[in-house]
Queue: 3 jobs
Job 1
Amino acid sequence: MDTERRGWWIGPSGSAACGLLLAGCLGPIGGGGLLGDASDFVNLDKDGDEAVTVNEFSKWGKDQGVLDAFMGDTKGEIASTALSQGLYDIWDIEGSGITEAEWSEGLRAWFPDGDTQEFTSWDLDQDGTLDRDELVAGFAHTDLLSGWDDDSDGALTMDETYRRFYDVFDGNSDGTLTSDEWTAGLASWNWGF
């Protein structure tokens, strides 16, 4: 099993890739774990009203410890490098480096209000794909992740991170996650469900 591609990789410095975050909440590619398919929507919908709010999503994530591996320090900040590495795992659909099409789709889905970016400025070796280090460096040289910092305090907190993940699933941006949006979200990214 290619554990790095499956989201369970922990780097030599002890920093976990964000793929662990998604693997922890959605299970490894191929199913399993805490969530793994569309029927698991009921685990998020605690009040049974067939709609999940950001508060239900965040509470569930906190109860499960989904972001615990990403806490950068005791102040409750999320490590941006781990988050960038996790986005690599999600966006690299083919498993051979992020193509320009995968990168463009990833930016559109995860950073809809982000600055206009040029793929060639991220592709440092100009080979037509981004490896993990190039994606991490690309994020480090932009302010894209700072857009997740809702209160502009310079720290990415657990609540801010949960809100962004929730927003990605909430396809129509109405503040309510439906079972159909959950299913579409699972199907549209590199999670293998």
Job 2
Amino acid sequence: MYGKLLGDNVHWQNREAWIYSNNVYTRYPFQGSLYGLPPQVIKECIMGAIEARYGKPDQPKPASNGVHANGNSTNGHAKTNGAHSNGNGHGKSNGHTNGHANGSGRISRLTCEFKAPVNDKGDELLDCCGDGIAEATVPLAAAKDEPKNFEEFIYKVWGAGIAKHFAIPYNRKIWAVPLDEMETSWLGGRVPLPDLGEMIEGALSPKPKPMGPNARFGYPLRGGFQALMDGFLPLLNGTLRLNSRVKTVSPSRRIVTLDDGMEVSYQQLISTMPLPVLIRSMGQEAPTAIKEAAAALRYTSVCCVNLGFGREKLTDKHWIYYPEDTLFHRIFVQGNASPHCNPPGGFGITCEITYGPNKPLPCQGEALIQRCIDDVVKVGIARAEDPVWAANIVDMPHAYVVYDHARPKNVALIREWLDPHDIHLAGRYSEWEYYNSDHAFLAGKKAAESAQGRLQDAPVASA
């Protein structure tokens, strides 16, 4: 896909994902790269992980059934093994266990497609996140102790130390909702749990540079992430209409009305709009139960504060996670995504700030920009004397899909109603899934194939 859309307009480089806490940088993921943290922090993290698996010294050894925690965290950034529309991993950012909880008391792996090595106990060791950290089977006390929500998952799988020093403060910061209101099915491929041996090694010595399938990443050499979208233009056969907004969608009439009054009829409709927005656009054609289900879907918003400083090479990192008291939870270093991202003498970064009903933004506009500049200086990325050449804010009202306990039922209800109307959902916001950009590409392909299949199966109208 990169080759077709970008040709030679692509820059490949080794990933540099880091975490800043306790005034030091450690490699991402936190739990596998403790070296450099204060000794007491390291002790609490390792002891907490041991106790989460095997119980405290005065407790009996737990049963063997448990949870498989395979994958990498995001933007992510959380996760991320992939990228947002601006190219940063979340790593999703950029955090963001590979599977769904089932009745066996385990989270089943769904997407690891390679033969896994085993440790000396015969447990599979998987490196689903490609960061050189093997993920291991984690025994819980019993099936009844399977985590009931994301907060319980953090404590039961990672332990109290990692929870205290990274997982709880970072995830509260990024999700902007109480973590016990989130279920765990979304964790597929996003939450790395290192083997205890590797965890101890990562505490005793610096971790080597990441290895694995996503240790290197590609970004457009010129044109930013938009260059990937522009690469589709020569390949399109149909009519492309830009700078238009959908005002209403009529499933019964099979007509989309644009904001300039133009009506476009359709046989099959593929929507990438946020699911609640799509249902609202249908007005009274959507049944009450569908409108209520759409209104109940929860999400976290993100403000991206883009800053351009008048000094070159502020850092050699690509994205940095901040679990502590900065306004932003992550910085994506735009300036290092490609050697052509900066003007001569300058350097650009993006500060990502989540907000929502439970976590409103503390200020807006210029005040928000200044808060970010102050925090960027506080964490040592910029200097107080560095000139700010450019600054703006990009607001994304729908950014992260919140996996609360009601989400699966609500999404299924909406999809079931849309299906006979030949409306296909594609992408993170329309499918209401935690997709990275690679998932979004595949979702678009799947939706297109579904629409084409129905067109081919449709009866031919008589003359």
Job 3
Amino acid sequence: MSAITDLQLARMLLRQWKPAPGTYTAPAAVVTWDGAQASFELTGAAPDPAAVVLYPGLGRPLAQAIGAPPQRPTGPTISALVANYAAATAPLQSAAGSVALEARFLSRLNAGCRKCPHWKEADLAGRGRCDSVFCHCTQRLLWLADEVCPEHKWAA
């Protein structure tokens, strides 16, 4: 078993980080990675909030396991990202440099998302949401460096 962080766990579940197949231990879960898919068992520890922002599904099973109602992920709102990008993305900076530069984020938002009929900026408490059937992760695509719009409105 190899020790990893909750952020690495979130990146693995999102298939942004593909380590060698094996079993990995993060504070929030023990995960088995077969090289293409991950399965995990919760440890009972609260996940790193930045990991829940990257992968909201990490918070829901934990809440269910301890009998608490699932809470909405508290990722940065679009207005916070536009007003002060560095502060809004600071909790995610330890995600191995995966946060896009502010200029790239603004370009994606203004030239792509805001002009797309699938973009719902007010949804998810102001965090924004893409309702394309091809988009499974809402606005985090905007601020992660290596992501690509599933509707081909912008590239990495």
